[in-house]
Amino acid sequence: MSSLPPRAGRHCHNPLNSLHATVYFSPDFTEELAGLGVEDRRAAYFAGRAAAMGAVGPGVVAATFYNFRHDLIARHLPAVWRTASPEAVLAARLRAVDSTLRRLLGEEAIASDEMAEAARLALRAAEGCTRHARPLYAAHADLPVPEEPHLAYWHATTLLREHRGDGHLTALLALELDPLEALVSHTATGKGMARKWVMATRGWEQSDWDAAAGRLRERGLLDGEGELTEAGVALRADLEDRTDRLDLAPYELLGAEGVARLTELAKGFLVAAALAGGFPADLVGKG
């Protein structure tokens, strides 16, 4: 039995994950990677998120990122490493994190006691993460913790995000949702990435989307209008519950009081980032 309130880890993870993601929407990240000669935005994303694993090829990224089409990844990897080394990409990413958080949150928040507290709590939670069968988490866990609190906080959000994400892939496989079926069913909840963003960033064609939706309909998970059936809603709930169980350890280590406080702080930073334009307005939804 968990000592935490129901879904406390998930509720804490959500704002942590969202603030982590701001760097990949940031013009600062694009500029930093372009400064290394990586001018294609997709190549920059693949390099930026994969660099902790070293100069990996498209197969490793397809496996660990899960929902990108392999053909798209292969257009950019491993070629991108001939332009910029993983070490250079990681340094550029951290510079982008610094400038992005300063721009979105403001210097007062960056220097605040709350930021230092959030960093301590998030790093403490990350001590409960485990490396086995979690390649993206494990790669990032081998990176040094930055000294400045806002960078340490972002580093910790990365660890917690990738730890949950690696476990989520295990749950997707157990429930037999392939990469695009996972995206289509998530979009159908109204809480996932909008279809236009999936198509623009993940490399899939409309025919791929239609085929995935067809497979979900055959399983009774999606109706003719593209909405989740009762069975589809239940499967998505089961997916998140399985992910919660696989991701429980860091939040159990932090304890109920620490999780509640970290959630409070994370939500505050996230709201500030969102109000400052940290995310595209049409990112989430069914369109």
Per DSSP, what share of the residues sits in E-state strands of 2 or more residues? under 5%
Indicate the mean pLDDT. 96
H and E string: HHHHHHHHHHHHHHHH
What's the structural domain tally?
A: 1
Return residue spans where pLDDT drops below 50 for at least 5 consecutive residues: none
How would you sum up the global shape? globular
Terminal residue distance: 40 Å
Describe the largest sheet.
Answer: none
Number of helical segments? Answer: 16
Kindly name the structural category: mainly alpha
Radius of gyration over alpha carbons?
Answer: 19 Å
Helix proportion range: 55-70%
Describe what this molecule looks like in 3D.
The protein is mainly α and about 290 residues long. It has one domain. Helix content is about 70%, strand content about 0%. It has 16 helices and no strands. The termini are far apart. Pfam families: HTH_67 (PF21863).
In short:
By secondary structure, this protein is an all-alpha fold. It has helices at about 10-25, 25-35, 40-50, 60-65, 70-75, 80-85, 85-105, 105-110, 115-125, 135-140, 150-175, 180-190, 195-200, 205-220, 230-245, 250-275.
List the topology elements.
Elements: H1 8-25, H2 27-35, H3 41-50, H4 58-65, H5 70-74, H6 80-83, H7 86-105, H8 107-110, H9 113-126, H10 135-141, H11 149-174, H12 179-188, H13 195-201, H14 206-218, H15 230-246, H16 248-275
